[in-house]
Amino acid sequence: MFEKIPAIYSAEEIIENAIKKTKKIQIQDKNRFYRNRKTIIKKTELFATNVISTLEKYVKGFPSIDNLPKFYQELIDIKIDADKLKQSLGAVEWARKTCTKIYSKQIKTLKKTRDLSFLKHKQKEIYGRIASVLKQIDKNLIFLSKAQNTIKDFPEIQNTITIVIAGYPNVGKSSLLKNISSAKPKIAQYPFTTTKIHVGHIEKRQGYNTEKYQIIDTPGLLDRPIHKRNKIEKQAIAALIHLADIIIFILDPSENCGYPIEKQKNLLSQIKKMFRDIPIIVVENKSDIKKTDSINIKISCKNREGIDKLVDKIFEIISKKTREIKPHF
To answer: Are 160 and 246 in contact (CB under 8 A)?
Structure first.
């Protein structure tokens, strides 16, 4: 979806690249006057058209934000700022149109004149005016370059049944994803190891067919109001709102995650209120360290205890929900 977004260069780099391409131009003509005249015109044309096509490529390379699935729209707003992205793309489009007008108007004058001095003067003028326009949008180009680097790391979300893993930081969300899917998320013992969304897949064989479902590891959430949540946490909320067909909520009764179990349970209560219509599987991780008497599924991502039982529960819910699930996109 985002692979067509090109690398974005600064105003100076666009100018340098355009000039570099003109240096190889040398028109062949027996008449020295015509040779020089045609070469100047061709170099000017190539410089202008290269700049214009580069700007056009930038504008067309970014997908229409308003036409993207809601999850991606919100992710862009969280990580980039959708309004600033639209403004920057609008500025680049303005620059493209302005450069096109400069080129279209001046190239006619170039082709009519037979005065080489005037021709060189006009060439310099066109270069200068186009460069001036580019410099006016340099901050927008820099912003788009950063946006492109951010967007290219967005997860590839498929329109299929999706299980979203949620819970406090360090409770074992990434470890669970690694245990039950093909994904290989980063795992470490400090808060917010997961700073972005990771996607894996879980498969179920039915006769000769294999059904593949999507499972998502989200950044850790804390028990606090939505307006106090940081950008990392907001990604998790966006995934839950726009993608979740099933939620796996992980608790760590051992509190090795660094957070009291009561705070974890408060967050669970909050999630249950927010997502009343979505099945929630409550899982207690780190059963190799501590087990409670609760009815929740007990697992250990360290020794895989209870993992098969959890997977069976996931498939049980999927088999009941298949007809109810609506497309995410």
So the answer is: no
CB 164 within 8 A of CB 219: no
Say how far apart CA 107 and CA 142 lie, in whole Å. 30
Q: Which residues contact 58 (CB under 8 A, 6 or more apart)?
A: 6, 8, 89, 92, 141, 144
Domain boundaries of the chain, sorted by first residue: 11-151, 162-321
- H or E stretch at 248: strand 246-251
| CA atoms within 13 A of residue 307's CA, in its CB half-sphere | 18
Rounded to the nearest integer, the mean pLDDT of the chain is 88
- CB-based contact 8:63 (threshold 8 Å): no
Which CATH number does the domain 162-321 belong to among 3.30.465.60, 3.40.50.2000, 3.90.1150.10, 3.40.50.300? 3.40.50.300
pLDDT at 93: 98
The encoded tokens of residue 176 equal 């669970």
Burial class (CB within 10 angstroms; exposed 0-12, middle 13-18, buried 19+) of 140? buried
Whole-model pTM over 0.70: yes
pLDDT tens track for 5-55: 999 999 999 999 999 988 877 777 667 766 777 888 888 899 999 999 999
**Residue 245, C-beta contacts closer than 8 angstroms, at least 6 positions apart:** 161, 162, 163, 278, 318, 321, 325
Chain centre distance of CA 239: 13
Helix (H, G, I), strand (E, B) or coil at 203: strand
Q: How many CA atoms lie within 13 A of 70 on its CB side?
A: 11
